[in-house]
From TrEMBL:
InterPro entries: Cell_Envelope_Assoc, DUF218, Rossmann-like_a/b/a_fold
DUF218 domain sequence ranges: 27-144
PANTHER family, per the entry: DUF218 DOMAIN-CONTAINING PROTEIN, INNER MEMBRANE PROTEIN, PROBABLE PERMEASE
Organism (species): Pseudobacter ginsenosidimutans
Protein name in UniProt: Uncharacterized SAM-binding protein YcdF (DUF218 family)
């Protein structure tokens, strides 16, 4: 049962994961693969608002999507963007990556192969993966100008049948642990975690929201 106390703790993690950065025009929109197709819709929205002339959709099949889709995340996202009016020739697809680090590294390779010089990026991800995406991108591509955004939804609005509250909280707990541990592994840059946010993490993990924790 999801109690008001659990929701209060989870919202602390949500507010930390979301960076709320203001956006500026960039050379490329980079939409990172996920089961949440609203990320593709957000990328299409930014394209139509004139934020960048190119969208790269990056993602093969991850832990969740491999069990629900046969089509890669990038290909599914590209179809959504085209259905929203984004021209196919404004889209590139990277469909091999299976994690955020590979999203960045394989996109680097793709742009190099296409001889496209992009110096600034708007990365689009799920709201609760903004900070982790920022930290990973800055580790692997520190010289680029970066903005991170996500579908503009509140914590309550984000809950949908395919992403129930329990799965969302487990995911946020797992991502926060990775923000703390991954800099030592060379996967991300360091991010300060406020004491109250880490305390909320520990409480939620102790309550059993440990599905995605690194043991």
């Amino acid at each position: 049962m999801i109690t008001p106390e659990i929701i209060s703790l989870a919202r602390k993690l949500w507010d930390y994961h979301r960076m709320g950065q203001p956006l500026s025009k960039a050379d490329c929109i980079l939409a990172l693969g996920t089961q949440d197709t609203r990320v593709a819709e957000r990328a299409a929205e930014l394209f139509h608002q004139g934020y960048a002339p190119l969208i790269v959709f990056s993602g093969g099949l991850g832990k969740i999507t491999a069990s629900i889709w046969t089509q890669s995340e990038a290909e599914r996202f590209a179809e959504i963007a085209i259905s929203k009016g984004v021209p196919a020739d404004a889209i590139l697809i990277e469909n091999k990556s299976t994690n955020t680090g590979e999203n960045i590294l394989f996109t680097q390779k793709l742009l190099l192969e296409k001889q496209i010089e992009a110096n600034s990026f708007i990365v689009v991800q799920k709201p609760y993966m903004e900070r982790r995406s920022f930290a990973t991108f800055k580790k692997h591509w520190p010289e680029k100008v970066l903005y991170v955004t996500s579908p503009d939804l509140t914590f309550e609005q984000y809950i949908v049948p395919e992403l129930p509250m329990e799965l969302l909280i487990n995911s946020m707990v797992g991502d926060l642990q990775r923000i703390k541990l991954y800099p030592e592994k060379g996967f991300q840059i360091h991010q300060d975690i406020p004491e109250d946010v880490w305390a909320a993490f520990e409480e939620l993990a102790a309550m059993g929201f440990d599905r995605f924790l690194i043991k």
